[in-house]
Amino acid sequence: MSGLTLLLTVGTPRGTGRTRPSQLPNHPGFGWRLALGLLTLLGLLGSRVGQAQTYPRRAPEFDRLAQELFAEIQTDQIPYEDLYGTLLNLYQSPLNLNTATPEELRALPLLAEKQVQALLRYRQANGPLLSVYELQAVPEWDVRTIARVAPFVAVEAPRANAARGPLWQRIKSEENNALLLRYRRVLQQQKGYTPVDTFQGRPTLRYLGSADAWALRYRVAHAHDFSLGFTAEKDAGEPITWQPGRGQYGPDFISAHAVFYDQGRLKTLALGDYQLQFGQGLLLSSGLALGKGAETITNLRRASLGVRPYTALLENTFFRGAAATYQLAPGWEATVFTSRKNLDASARQATDSLAQLAEFSSSLLLTGLHRTASELANRQRLSETVGGGHLGYTSPDGNLALGATAVATHYGSAFQKRPEPYNRYEFSGQNNLALGVHYSYGYRNLLLFGESGRSSGGGLGTLNGLVASLGPRVDAAVLLRHYGPDFHTFYGNALSENTRTINESGMYVGLKVRPLSRWELSAYLDQFSFPWLRYRVSAPSQGRDLLARVSFTPTKTSLLYVLYRARLKPLDLAASQSGRALPLPGQQLRHSLLLYCDAQPTATVGLRTRLQASFLRDDDNLPWQRGYVLSQDVQVQPRRGLLLAARYALFDTDDYDTRQYIFEQDVLYAFSIPALYGQGTRAYALAQLTLNKHFTLWLRYADTRYRHQSTVGSGLEQIQGPARSEVTAQVRYRL
Q1: pLDDT tens across 416-433, in order?
Q2: In this record, what's one Pfam family (predicted)?
Q3: Residues 587, 537: contact at Cβ < 8 Å?
């Protein structure tokens, strides 16, 4: 019997439902756990001798997890890079279920609060788990949940790091030690790479580097012990330059970190690039923040994970410097951090001779692209210094957590936004100090959480939420938020309709119901308002966001669902639409529908079908704009070590506003979510080959073909012809 089959069948007597070990006669839990251990041993014979109770972890299906968590339509704001980075860290350094704290368990976006509490109660009543298979005996943990979290968790006996030898020896012998190299290129010639010509006597703008894009990653890590790694990346069009005076040493982006854990009372020490996650992300949330999506309950709350290594490729969501967490007393920890790095920013000169600021920065540039002379001129031109600390308390049972946070930010030159009415309350100057407090309290199947903060100038922000299991089949969540127009925090990423936690009030209500076995209904309603003007919204405004999903799992390996979303957002109507000389405030209504089927007819073949459509109208008197996409995915594993995947999609949209975003499977730890608009087809093929225990290869080819178009893209990205093709290759070497 294979390990997977054992996982799905052991421990549930037919017709009796799940039996808890504490309910067995004679010695509570002993007989059941002994039988489970023997069955686990039999199920894993032929694998590794001496690891009979170790669940054979499989690589997670990141694309399927992202689909289940988000199932998002019409947006490119999903933080896939952070999602992959977080899940990658968990996969490489799995969470030990025998020692995991409530906050660490809540950091898994796959677990409901009742499942967290059920595991904690089970550990308290029965002691440490013997195997991942024992999760079947934990109340509220169903087979689907276990299968989803299995790649990110482990069951190990608590063991001091020093018992495994000195640090250098632990690093040298660590199995989680890999080097990864990725290459990507668009096959057609884009305008930015054509020879330079002249226009009105001036040379035209072109990219300064080649069309090749590549990334190099290395990391060696062990959970709660150490993490060492570096990353180097060159985007397409960027030159490779050695200019130490301008902060460039070959590739455009270089990142490195060294993080050490549990050195006595020194709980964490981070050097280099790192991230911070405290409270509900109001002041510090430089890591993953899922926000609104098809997972309507667990996505709301955040977990205070403290200091974490930075391993992603985003060039602006991290701190660079040092951070340390020290245990002051049982339950009390203090964190201090400092960071200094240079940011991309656009600079402007004051035209008024009486202006107080002769030169200032008007905006931060977050693309991370440095391909042209103008982009290079804005590269790292603004210095940022950040410092602060966090004081946290956790009760002995882990159910109560309190904390206070301070973040001070200083910029090398002053900020001053353009003198537009909607920028009236935006941050200006060089210094900002944000102070905040947060709390989290879990009681049985109830979790209360919240955070409040104040920034320089008196701006206030607060959010408070509740997640509760109202019964065995009903979960609910409520979150209230208010971020003042003058509330400024540069590394906060709490739940919001805006891309930043500013100028917004709202109430979110989420619900998840399982009325019948294999059926699930999830929904949320988010009502929000903006007290002050926004870009392209010339008056205080309000809107609504509604999502409902009905899903059905006919078998353990299949999933069907229908998702509907309606969004009503404020938007200025153009003068031509309003019939006036100036734009007037209006509303944009978008209806989105998604039909999704994920089936596995055989053990080696997987099929996924997706049909999504959107209907958009900017005003009641205007016609509807429509967009559609239909895709079919096939995944085949003809033999061990070889995985083949492919997709063919048809799309048809009226314009760019009705573009369709559709998630694609990519090479490991990469993501692709192209915007499809116009009429055409989109196809890709992916192959993954494991040569041996050291080498794994990936090769991907993607092609988009448009109808009734002679060019693809615009500006320097423009391609002559109706097609755009891209090839990606990746190799991973385990040391």
Answers
A1: 888 889 999 999 999 999
A2: HHH_3
A3: no
